[in-house]
Write a structure and sequence with these properties.
This protein has eight helices and three strands. It is mainly alpha-helical. A three-stranded antiparallel sheet has the order 1-2-3, covered by helices on one side. Strand 2 and strand 3 form a beta hairpin. The N and C termini lie far apart (about 55 Å).
Length: about 220
């Protein structure tokens, strides 16, 4: 539909400390999405310890989610909230397929934790640690689609998130943003386990001077 099409005009980028304050001359407001994609690959380093080779099958994010939900580690953002495992899988986001990327974003909307925030102006439409302003959904929907006055706040909220994830998935794939990010992530060819082995070997060779060499 026209509401889900990506404009053909050249992209414009602005670097701001607070993206909620961003103003565009061509529109009456702006919607800001803060996304933390996490590592979009599984480990392939031969230096992974045999007891941790689950890393070859699961992403770091999935492993940490399981440890968090089982109470083995604590996440600073979670506080006293119930420990619910995220539905999000970074491999979906980095798949390069629009439908699969949308699935990843939809799962982030369902279980955002601290990995997804959406706001408009000073109001939050989605945030794990902020009060969401339900009255904003119709207004936000009006920026990217038509407003159906007969809709309830709940219906406007559902339609808004569906449109946002549809548009965002198209943009992320079309602009090759995630593809470029993954290519940088994959420069880590030794994994954390390999880094530990290198450090221990350096300690063997250099003793107490090892830390000075790393500074």
């Amino acid at each position: 539909s026209d509401a889900c099409s990506i404009p053909k005009t050249p992209p414009v980028a602005k670097l701001l400390w607070n993206y909620r304050e961003m103003k565009m001359d061509s529109c009456v407001g702006s919607i800001c999405m803060e996304l933390k994609p996490k590592a979009g690959y599984t480990a392939c380093s031969p230096l992974v310890h045999p007891s941790r080779r689950i890393k070859y099958r699961k992403t770091r994010f999935e492993i940490l989610q399981q440890l968090h939900c089982n109470g083995f580690i604590s996440k600073g953002w979670s506080g006293d909230t119930p420990r619910v495992r995220s539905l999000y899988n970074p491999l979906d986001l980095f798949s390069g397929n629009v439908k699969t990327v949308k699935k990843a974003l939809d799962n982030l909307v369902t279980t955002p934790q601290n990995n997804l925030r959406i706001c408009m102006g000073d109001g939050f439409l989605l945030a794990h640690d902020k009060t969401e302003d339900n009255a904003l959904y119709n207004e936000a929907l009006g920026l990217i689609s038509y407003i159906d006055e007969s809709q309830t706040d709940s219906q406007a909220k559902e339609e808004f998130f569906d449109l946002v994830t549809t548009l965002a998935s198209q943009i992320l794939v079309q602009e090759k943003i995630l593809e470029k990010l993954e290519s940088l992530q994959r420069l880590d060819i030794i994994d954390a386990d390999g880094a530990i082995l290198i450090y221990e070997r350096l300690r063997e060779l250099c003793g107490d001077q090892a830390d000075d060499l790393l500074d």
